[in-house]
Design goal:
globular, single chain, 1% strand, 23 helices, mainly alpha, two-stranded parallel ribbon, Growth Hormone, Chain: A
């Protein structure tokens, strides 16, 4: 112990010399490391908070403890001076920035294990930009493959029915819809487990599980077994849809999160739109079973890359592991993580697991915010898969297109997605920075939502445009273009709402996204099953108009959350 304190005093002495050197050069040198060092020095003058002041329910980037300098600080500075890291920061950093988040630091004298410094290279927010974007790219790739698998069977329903001698169109559509039921169930336990055991093991293991069941889908001997295997695929593939968002939150601060969310969500948007195009042509040429092999091969390669090249990003899990390691090395079992509230009751491992597994459901049904935005997106997501299942019926029936040519119609949705993603990427972070500065530097998660309100008015247009043009069988280009506003609207509302939930419930981002996913995927699993009968009874025109009127009725939800969400959140006293 005495040697540890001596090293701390020596480090503090070296620290003063470093600061003096920086002060001599600050008129001629401007770099992120210098600015951060000055910021650290100001923090030292203010002093740290005592352990009793910790609030475990607060966001982890607002907790401060007394600073202890170690050798890792110098390694951190060298990391920040690397050419690649400096280039990445210059090319990816927005012109206007918010103050950097403050990390809880090490204080061994008081038994607290935290980060070595504000520039600790082990902190995911301090990873080199190249590593951050590489991990995000891997996430985007696997997040492309799982929804790709969800919709690739949509244009092959006719072939599946023929293979299994099924005459009921609803039963033939079941393998497509039941995949989304797996999407709904998986996050209920995968997301909280990622908050307990870490993101890396969950994202890797669950996607490996997804790949294994794709083999079963390719070899399924009956329609019922195909439906079961598809459910298991959805169960494993769901992790990338929820845990992926939590990883993005681990890696990027608020002012950069919008652009990172865009890259991650590229897969979610592009996958379901391109899959039917490929699936239609594959089914026509080499058989519908091959669509599963075409999904399995690249998905397996990506999962292997994630397992080998990615790493853990959960802040609390990293410090928990560090606490356990230092407790053994220093023979100090009393050491605790800086993220643990010393005044909170000590929970058993069973209680921690139970709390984690029930958290998404508690969030969904006890938080008006989570339920409201989940209901809004659930309807739009259900309509998306309703379109996936009924586009073949409309274009093969009214326009007499082949299955392969019908798949091209889905590309109009992709055009809308790309427009929505481009606008979100360009506006989101800039809007947050501008509104935060206007709010005296105080950031509120609701600042993610203004853009969402405009897109909510675009979303219903498709139902009237596409529905009535297809109903009257006007030239095919009219209903095809009519699908574009749907793509723009769903991305323009989904992305800000998802970013909002990550920011509003940062401590439990994975569970918040799981709650968000459950209702969305349940609706998406069952609404498409009602589509064929609805269009037979009402017709394509009035059937789509009914959906359009519901979409219009739901427009006030994002507006209400934007205006009153802050007050509601402050009244939520639940212990998630």
């Amino acid at each position: 112990m005495s040697s540890g304190r001596g090293e701390g005093r020596a480090s503090a002495s070296i620290r003063e010399d470093d600061v003096a050197t920086v002060e001599d050069k600050e008129m001629t040198l401007s770099s992120p490391s210098v600015t951060s060092d000055k910021h650290d020095e100001m923090d030292e003058e203010k002093g740290g908070e005592s352990p009793e002041d910790f609030d475990i329910e607060a966001q982890d980037d607002t907790i401060q403890v007394e600073r202890v300098e170690t050798r890792a600080t110098n390694a951190s500075r060298r990391t920040h001076r690397s050419i690649l890291s400096r280039f990445s920061r210059v090319t990816s950093k927005p012109k206007d920035e918010l103050p950097p988040p403050v990390h809880p630091l090490m204080d061994l004298d008081n038994g607290i294990v935290g980060w070595e410094s504000q520039h600790d290279p082990q902190h995911p927010l301090n990873f080199p930009q190249s590593r951050k974007w590489f991990i995000t790219g891997l996430l985007s790739a696997i997040t492309f493959m799982t929804p790709f698998a969800s919709s690739i069977l949509a244009p092959t329903i006719e072939y599946i029915a023929e293979t299994y001698h099924e005459t009921d169109l609803t039963r033939s559509s079941m393998p497509v819809s039941i995949f989304l039921l797996g999407y709904a169930v998986g996050p209920l336990f995968l997301s909280p487990l990622s908050e307990i055991y870490g993101r890396h093991v969950i994202i890797t293991g669950s996607n490996a599980f997804f790949c294994v069941w794709l083999i079963g889908c390719a070899l399924a001997p009956s329609l019922d077994t195909l439906a079961f295997f598809r459910f298991m695929c959805g169960l494993g593939g769901s992790a990338s849809q929820t845990v992926g968002g939590a990883i993005v939150a681990d890696l990027f601060p608020v002012s950069e999160r919008g652009k990172a969310m865009t890259i991650w969500m590229l897969g979610t948007m592009i996958g379901p739109s391109t899959a039917p195009v490929i699936g239609g042509f594959v089914a026509e040429t080499i058989g519908w079973r091959w669509v599963n092999w075409i999904t399995f091969i690249p998905a397996t390669i990506i999962v292997m890359a994630i397992a080998i090249l990615s790493r853990e990003t959960n802040h609390e899990v990293l410090i928990r592991r560090k606490t356990k390691r230092l407790g053994k090395e220093l023979n100090r079992p009393e050491l605790r993580s800086c993220y643990v509230d010393p005044s909170a009751p000590v929970l058993t491992r069973r209680r921690i697991l139970l709390n984690g597994l029930t958290r998404p459901i508690r969030l969904l049904f006890t938080s008006p915010i989570v339920f409201g935005v989940s209901l809004y997106i659930a309807f739009s997501y259900g309509c998306l898969y309703l379109l996936f299942n009924t586009i073949p019926m409309v274009f093969q029936g009214s326009y007499h297109w082949s299955i392969g040519i019908t798949g091209i119609v889905y590309l109009s949705l992709l055009v809308g997605y790309m427009v929505g993603l481009s606008v979100f990427s360009a506006w989101s972070d800039k809007t947050v920075v501008r509104m935060t500065k206007a709010n005296n530097g105080v950031y509120e998660p609701e600042m993610r939502l203004p853009d969402c309100i405009y897109f909510a008015f675009i979303f219903p247009i498709t139902f009237f445009w596409y529905g009535w043009s297809a109903d009257k069988a006007v030239h095919w280009i009219v209903p095809v273009i009519g699908l574009v506003p749907f793509g723009v609207g769903i991305v323009g509302t989904w992305m800000p709402i998802q970013a909002y939930l990550i920011d509003a419930y940062a401590h439990y981002a994975a569970s918040a996204l799981a709650a968000f996913s459950v209702l969305r995927c349940v609706v998406a699993a069952f609404l498409p099953l009602a589509g064929p009968d609805m269009f037979i009874v009402l017709g394509v025109g009035w059937g789509n108009s009914l959906l359009g009127f519901i979409a219009i009725a739901l427009i006030p939800i994002p507006t209400i959350v934007y205006k009153y969400g802050g007050r509601i959140r402050k009244r939520e006293n639940f212990k998630w």
